[in-house]
Amino acid sequence: MAGKGSKDPEESKDIGITAKKEEDYGEWFSQIITKAELVEYTDVSGCYVYRPNSFEIWEKVRDFMDYEFRKRGVRNGYFPLFIPEKLLMKEQEHVEGFTPEVAWVTHTGSSKLAERLAVRPTSEIIMYDSYGKWIRSWRDLPLKINQWSNVVRWEFKNPVPFIRSREFLWQEGHNVFASKEEVEKDVLEMLDVYELTYKEMYSVPVIKGYKTDSEKFAGGDYTTTCEVFLPNGKAAQGCTSHNLGQNFAKALDITFLDKDEKKKHVWQDSWGFSTRTIGIMIGMHSDNKGLVLPPKVATVQAVIVPILFDKTKEQVLAKCDELKRGLSDCFSVILDDREEYTPGWKFNDWEMKGVPLRIEVGPKDIEKGQAVTVRRDTGDKEFVKLDNLKDHVQLTLEKIQEELYDNALRMRQENTIDAASMQDLMKAIKDKQLVRTNWCGSEECEALIKDKTNGAKIICIPFDEKPNGKCVHCGKDSKHEVYVAKSY
Amino acid sequence: MAGKGSKDPEESKDIGITAKKEEDYGEWFSQIITKAELVEYTDVSGCYVYRPNSFEIWEKVRDFMDYEFRKRGVRNGYFPLFIPEKLLMKEQEHVEGFTPEVAWVTHTGSSKLAERLAVRPTSEIIMYDSYGKWIRSWRDLPLKINQWSNVVRWEFKNPVPFIRSREFLWQEGHNVFASKEEVEKDVLEMLDVYELTYKEMYSVPVIKGYKTDSEKFAGGDYTTTCEVFLPNGKAAQGCTSHNLGQNFAKALDITFLDKDEKKKHVWQDSWGFSTRTIGIMIGMHSDNKGLVLPPKVATVQAVIVPILFDKTKEQVLAKCDELKRGLSDCFSVILDDREEYTPGWKFNDWEMKGVPLRIEVGPKDIEKGQAVTVRRDTGDKEFVKLDNLKDHVQLTLEKIQEELYDNALRMRQENTIDAASMQDLMKAIKDKQLVRTNWCGSEECEALIKDKTNGAKIICIPFDEKPNGKCVHCGKDSKHEVYVAKSY
Known about the structure:
Two copies of one chain form a homodimer. With about 500 residues, the first copy, chain A, is an alpha+beta fold. Helix content of chain A is about 35%, strand content about 25%. Chain A folds into three domains: about 25-285, BirA Bifunctional Protein, domain 2 (2-Layer Sandwich), CATH 3.30.930; about 295-395, Anticodon-binding domain (Rossmann fold), CATH 3.40.50.800; about 415-485, Translation Initiation Factor IF3 (2-Layer Sandwich). Chain A has helices at about 25-35, 50-70, 85-90, 90-100, 125-135, 180-200, 245-250, 275-285, 315-325, 345-355, 365-370, 390-415, 420-430, 445-450, and strands spanning about 40, 50, 75, 80-85, 105-110, 110-120, 145-150, 165-175, 205-210, 220-230, 235-245, 255, 265, 265-275, 300-305, 335, 355-360, 370-375, 380-385, 415-420, 435-440, 455-460, 480-485. Chains A and B meet through strand 2, helix 2, strand 3, strand 5 and strand 6 of A and strand 2, helix 2, strand 3, strand 5 and strand 6 of B.
């Protein structure tokens, strides 16, 4: 499980992260994801290996979300990877949004295909082609299907593992309703599941809002989003839930016979949450010693490190093993009994990998009937009576999960600036802050805000907006309160 | 969740299967998988939609296997979909085995790629390219990684949903060891996990054995297999576990520094289990009324069908709801309280979908404090006191799971023929039986057996072989006992 060299004790000096998060975030991020053994680069730019240390996070998130989906009547299925070119072309806006990034299969074996096949960049078209065959009457609605899959978008922006990759993993949910009211409600309900997942699993607070028309999903009526503000001063679109209206229903002629015996087009939404979210979590919580994982996504929640001396070795190992067995009913705990490494080396190793809690046990601790626990996130050290260890671990893991969230929220609040003028806005963006301001609603002002800030965008119109005053750019009456930030 | 038309009560006569399993297996299979809403066809030949009714089977199998994998130290990861052409070419036999079926990405957007990308037909090469970066010393071994993924093999044989599709879902495990002994042991251990999964989840008995050299995995030393004999007289390769020896290690130069300070090539295996297994299970147990599901893979294990009359409707529904809540702690139970369908229509509907147990409750049953249960597999009807219902359901589901296995095993045993001559062998194959016979080990005899039987193959050399007597084809001394059958 170790990266190149990281297991040779003599090389332990090299395994730390040599860049500082606050000075060179990009380099820091890149070191953390390789040294914590989360990803591996490949010969194809933008395509990465998800090593077990990161994939297991994804599995925990999947299980959490599947439970929430099922509660809402969503069932999982799987639709083909390949979309015939003609089919993909059926919804015009959708085509224009996605075809510049599509990977095309043109040959199989040594034969040329009669029709090119798109590797799915998203699955609206291929799924709805089947939906059209299944839906006949109001009795078939709502239809709610989700799939966990890989998708490919050959973006030409600089790829960053997790955050922007050409192949990524995600879930994409596709619900169908008989009425506009139902789909509007559902779009928000699925976004709530995303907010919950970010909070409960990743300890990451989000801002929920609408995307502007220029940033919405190609082929949809409107897009809702969870936006995350990161400690490097950048926002990241965290996931989206789109109201597709009847656009695809009309393009693919998906109709149902309603209770009033009239044939009507269905109403649809789609909503996706990808492995980008792992990158957001890493960027939010981790530090210059390595990864920091919220306990609920950690494969190993606590590691016991025995302090071994020749004379007391047997006794200490036996005690540690007993403790491990006692804790394992409730938590995922490992005992690091490797003898070729010093305790100090192990501390660094598990800190790099983000294990939330370390439990140290030496011969003197055993004499005193205690252990030493050290929190990964704060470094806080406590002496704990062995009788209380289980309760202590339970409480501490809960505390870590909550405090990571609270700290991230505080960080965002402290870095949010209300800007009434372009001067204030430009200064705040330069200072890597998140700007809350007013906007007239014109695409022109949106574009000029971007130009004048070297690329900061209106990341969303928050659901809780209170438009007031004048557009920060043109001075006309404000139509929306918006957040502006540099963004991935 | 219903297929076209199946929800209109007036069309209920059409929803049954019109072909008989024993007369036209192909047509029967094709009807069952669409009418039980397991798959949908698409415009791309050989690529199918896994509808929730089949995908949920796959999820249950995945969870079962993941548990077994984890117990054995295997961790899940995810490797890229695309393999650069040059990389794929590194292991010669492997290339020759797979390139005729590879789907090639040549363009992205409107640009031609400098190097073609293969859509993975299997992931040895792309995974081992990373393994080479991670493995340095004996401390890094064993390395055990599995991935759940989609793969594409553009076969030109007639595609059959589940059984032979151009895109399919599978798990592929890839373990690495320091010694030949370890890898040989592991190949068999992973095959044991497969046998267990077939038995415990699918109630399907397998024959474990070796593939002949002409049928082994391209690039491996030898292939072990679980073969399944189906009621239509055909065998299906159920899954495989390959000993790759040092072939890939040498092609990709994957070495480790052993305890003796010598640099050595690693030893590897790979093992895969795909959605084909679902097709095998369907073919094994299902009947002319529709799907038959072993309880452990059934999304719905029992369905309560209330018998409703105007006067007693409220009372019966209340009782059914109470029963459902009581059973739901232990089983997956639904109450079919749809009022637009008759009980008879519902019986057919749930029989088509393979729900293992039906529970009927009418007003007279309630008076007598009883319910009527009907087994999907046998049709056996029982009157059960409501006080005993939970225990009865528990026992009956266990019984179904076991008896499906026992019946499948008996079916195979009754259809297994020992053949000492080609005449016997050819007759048995014509009679759709499974032949156990003797083989000299020559590729020539293997090919001629195939020719003379119109395509029956040596499906495996069973692990428990007892070679005796003479080769069924040439009469020379037998080297192996083998199974011969028509095969998918």
